[in-house]
Amino acid sequence: xxxxxxxxxxxxxxxxxxxxxxxxxxxxxxxxxxxxxxxxxxxxxxxxxxxxxxxxxxxxxxxxxxxxxxxxxxxxxxxxxxxxxxxxxxxxxxxxxxxxxxxxxxxxxxxxxxxxxxxxxxxxxxxxxxxxxxxxxxxxxxxxxxxxxxxxxxxxxxxxxxxxxxxxxxxxxxxxxxxxxxxxxxxxxxxxxxxxxxxxxxxxxxxxxxxxxxxxxxxxxxxxxxxxxxxxxxxxxxxxxxxxxxxxxxxxxxxxxxxxxxxxxxxxxxxxxxxxxxxxxxxxxxxxxxxxxxxxxxxxxxxxxxxxxxxxxxxxxxxxxxxxxxxxxxxxxxxxxxxxxxxxxxxxxxxxxxxxxxxxxxxxxxxxxxxxxxxxxxxxxxxxxxxxxxxxxxxxxxxxxxxxxxxxxxxxxxxxxxxxxxxxxxxxxxxxxxxxxxxxxxxxxxxxxxxxxxxxxxxxxxxxxxxxxxxxxxxxxxxxxxxxxxxxx
Amino acid sequence: xxxxxxxxxxxxxxxxxxxxxxxxxxxxxxxxxxxxxxxxxxxxxxxxxxxxxxxxxxxxxxxxxxxxxxxxxxxxxxxxxxxxxxxxxxxxxxxxxxxxxxxxxxxxxxxxxxxxxxxxxxxxxxxxxxxxxxxxxxxxxxxxxxxxxxxxxxxxxxxxxxxxxxxxxxxxxxxxxxxxxxxxxxxxxxxxxxxxxxxxxxxxxxxxxxxxxxxxxxxxxxxxxxxxxxxxxxxxxxxxxxxxxxxxxxxxxxxxxxxxxxxxxxxxxxxxxxxxxxxxxxxxxxxxxxxxxxxxxxxxxxxxxxxxxxxxxxxxxxxxxxxxxxxxxxxxxxxxxxxxxxxxxxxxxxxxxxxxxxxxxxxxxxxxxxxxxxxxxxxxxxxxxxxxxxxxxxxxxxxxxxxxxxxxxxxxxxxxxxxxxxxxxxxxxxxx
Lengths: 489, 432
What we know:
The structure holds two protein chains of two kinds.
Chain A: E1 2-8, H1 12-21, E2 28-31, E3 48-49, H2 60-79, E4 83-84, E5 88-92, H3 98-110, E6 117-119, H4 122-128, E7 138-142, E8 146-148, H5 150-163, E9 167-169, E10 176-180, E11 183-187, E12 192-200, H6 206-212, E13 220-230, E14 240-243, E15 253-256, E16 262-265, E17 269-270, H7 281-294, E18 303-314, E19 320-323, E20 329-333, H8 339-356, H9 382-391, E21 398-400, E22 405-406, H10 407-415, H11 423-430, H12 443-454, E23 473-474, H13 477-481
Helix pairs in contact in A: 1-5, 1-8, 2-8, 10-11, 10-12
Chain B: E1 2-11, H1 15-26, E2 31-34, E3 50-52, E4 61-62, H2 63-76, E5 81-82, E6 86-90, E7 95-100, E8 104-115, E9 119-121, H3 124-127, E10 137-139, H4 140-150, E11 152-153, E12 157-161, H5 165-176, E13 180-186, H6 195-202, E14 209-211, E15 213-219, E16 226-231, E17 244-247, E18 250-253, E19 257-259, H7 262-267, E20 290-292, H8 303-324, E21 334-339, E22 343-347, E23 350-352, E24 359-366, E25 370-379, E26 384-393, E27 399-404, E28 416-423
Parallel strand pairs in B: 1-2, 1-8, 2-5, 8-20, 10-18, 12-13, 12-18, 13-14, 21-28
Antiparallel strand pairs in B: 3-4, 6-7, 7-8, 9-19, 15-16, 16-17, 21-23, 22-24, 24-27, 25-26, 25-28
């Protein structure tokens, strides 16, 4: 079988392209090297949908972000992920920074970003965001900026794509791509895929994949950003808070998440190891100190987790979205910030490329753009809950008490299209283990459910892929190994 | 929606909840126990080691044996209980909402509620260890559940961070299982659990205990491959150049316990600094008729002490229902109890002036170990009401004092009392 399109990479970019292509009468597959989609940059970024004024005008990413932000409205209605346009503040702490805010407001407004406003009235600023530092002298308010669960949206995109016929293959690290007679043959450890068109959305591995077809015209550097996340009860922010930007970065922000937590981060350190998602003592200190400039009373003691993610930074510092010289090979790489904000605009661009490449872009009659909203215990009223549990008792068995997640939601996460096969897969889909106890109570129960639903032994349940097993042996097995003949029963 | 009525609802069927329920039932009041797990007994069920019951029964029992004595009483007294049932809300009006598989949503109308939800373990996030986030990191209690209840081993070679009791007990348990415990690493200069566990669980098995050290980095992307431990200075800052790598495939965290008070907060009760609800001398929270006992109130050293506190809560609930329930009481006049020098927290947090003539049980912990100290209670007018010498104090041992404040000569007009644990003046030292 020859696919019309194969997408390499199951991050938000790849999944968004897959979903928006699933509208057309095409045979599509997506290959992901990890055990689950949304495992790389998508899993560990700020989850901010930017208004779009931050990048300089000469960059493609600016246009993509401004357009992408607007496209979120429709996507949100169709895909039912968590998204809130709460608005952002760029915070000026010194008078001379106001000029920068004014400049950004002017250019942004000219480029069609609605509602931008520089606010100098400290009382008004404090009213809008009471946690902000007293040292604030002014803010640039962007009401269209929003927060989204980046992985939650990616699961929604993938589910909807799968509903519309896209095939997802996980644990498929691409090893080689051969290009013969206008057909790409993609080899992984145990499979071979054929396609007429290939879309490279491989994130930090984008340059590596591009080189497999002989295209070596850009470099991708991983840039690490560390985060600290705080307990939901510790602080409530109304706005996304950015410092006034420097040339290097948008700076360390403080931001609420769609689930009501607050985080501080990311810093920005260029590294060489594409797998290095470790946090460092110095880095965590750096983001806390920086964060305190904007919010002095950061609830440091209520931190529940720290993590790091990698941005795929191209040497051009701009998105690399190319219909390349290798006919049928499209690069969608170097998707650094504001990549999450831009994904719907990027997908639009890819569709235009495929039209140019002569793919059959007939809209399918049975295309369904709606991904139903996952049912959540927390969304039900008491009466609804009672009915739900009577219809299906698994609604009445609470597995995660911090986040109040019943067994039903976990089973749904496992059996949804492109469902969870790992504990992290469940955790990122429906949040058990994300609360303040970080899995202390629910982990044994999740292992039990995953083992049962996937029909695998306890020892084979993994956290996030190969070699990440939780349990190594049954009790007595290790002790018996040291006894002569003991391990033979 | 199923609706029940009960004089008293007890939330949690661990050592605290069971003892409180039994106490209440013995006074012929109706009591209903709600438990989220599939059996009665709580965390004691996974504590299969001995050392329980020395105070309560003057016998040495295992955790499950200890729990069984109370479970038997619950059954003899025919106390109703709901298992696999999660309380999702409690209100000021003392309506309790719970869900379970069989009955759906349940509403219980109570006259009084006893909170006995216990505590949970602190996690890595709460202590912010940098590094990777691989598989192989567990809290000690979680590992205990895997080994003792589920029958699985979480790893082969271990480093245990924190010398809490569960961590030390697991060090011994895993050694028995043929696993290798490379080290127990403690950030403080002293062990944070009980001395008997240090001797019986670590020293008897030659498990190295490294004090004034902490884990500063986690290695390994998939499964943990090792940890860096570093010596810490006085303010727990890492001493540069003291890093050591220890290879292991599992890291257990035994870095402390926190009362589990999500429900308490949602009900609108105030919490105090130790993480437990703010209570008066009756163990009543800031919401009329809602009481707390056991580890949800304060983390105890021994289950026997939980039982004792739970019985006390039970007695107070009986008194509440028989003489105070539904009556308009005069405005509460209170005295605040404030943790002073070298005191981490104190229970009760407040005292009702109407009860000053009765003996009050104070429980508190020091912040750091000290020798030859003076424990003193001082009112806000700097008058010393009570003092007592103590040869040795340590954070892992909860201090308990029974004091009749009226007999001690408290000024009834005072607003607060402060509890200090201070170095004893030279002249008093020979009194030991």
